[in-house]
Amino acid sequence: MTNDTHDALTAFAATAANAVAECAGLAPRARATCLAEAGLIGVLAAESAGGLALGLDHAVPVLHAAGAGLLGYPLLESMLLAAALGGQAEAARIVLGEATATIAWAGRATLAGGRLSGTVGRAPMADSADLILVLTGTGAALVGANAAGVTVRPGDGLDVEAPDCEVVLANATPLALLEADAVDAIEQGAQLLRAAAIGGAVETCLAAAVAYTSTRVQFGKALVSFQALRHAMSRQKLAAEHIGAAIARSLMRPDDRLARAAAFAAATRFGAAAVESALQLHGGMGFTWDIPMHRHLRRIRSWEAQGDAPGLHRRLAAELLTANA
Predict the structure, then answer these.
(1) Residue 288 belongs to domain spanning
(2) Tens of pLDDT along 35-56?
(3) CA pair distance 66, 103, nearest whole angstrom
(4) Is 234 in the same domain as 281?
C-alpha cells in the first residue's frame, strides 16, 4: 500500500466516523441525506450515477465506522446496490440520498411473465425504504417498497434499531433486473463489508471494556488489575486482530472468493464471542440501553443471519475437506 492510498483510506475512515456520529438521532431519511452529502453511499457507485467508482478497499473503512458507531441505516446494502445498478436512474437516487434502499438477503422470489411473487426476508430497515432488491432464481429484481403488490411486514430478528423485515410480493412489477453475475458481486462484497462492520463493533466494545475496567474499583483495586479480566480483554484484542487480518488478506486477493468468505467466517467466529465477553465485563450494566454492548451483539447476530453464517461455515468446511481429500 502506498502512502497516498493509506492517507486516502484514513481520510475515508475519518469522514465516515464523523458522518455516523452526525447521523445519531436523525430519522432514516435524514440519515440518507447526511451520508450522501459525505459521499459515503456512492463510494462504489459509477461516476455516471454520481458515485466515486472506488474499490472495496475504500468501502471497508466506511463500514468499519458504521459498525463501530451502530449506524441505523442499510449503508452496506445501499452502497452495493448503487454500484450494481451502474448508470441507471435508481442508482443516482440512492447515491444522492433521494431514495433509501435495502436488500432482502433470505429467500427467492419467483419471476414469471415479468411479475414477481413470493415472500423474502432479512431485509434490513425495509419498513422505511423506498427501493428493495429481491433475489430470484436467475438474478435479482428491484421493486418499489410502496408499489402495487409489495407488502413489507416485520420479520424475525434481534435488532430493534435496524430491524429485519419480510417482503411479500404478489404480481409486483420490477423496476430493474440484475443478472446472476451482478448478484454474485453483491453477495461477495457483502461478505467482506459485513466483516468490516463486525470488526468495528468489536473494537468499540473492547475500548469500552478497557475504559470501564480501568476506572471501576472493587475490593480496593481497579478491575483491570485482576489477571483473569486482563486475559479476557487480551482475547478480545486477539479477536479484533484476527478479523482485521482476514479482511486485509481478502483485499490483497480481490479475485479470491474463498478469501472473502473466510473474512466473513472469521468475523462471525470471533466477533460475537468478543462482544459477549466485553458485555460480561460490564456486569448487569452491559444489558442496559445506556451501555451499547448488547446493541452491538444484536447487530452482529443480524449480520450473521443476513449472510447465512452457519451455512457458510458448513460450505467452507466441505470445500476444505474436498480440496484436501
Answers:
(1) 182-323
(2) 999 999 999 999 999 999 999 9
(3) 17
(4) yes
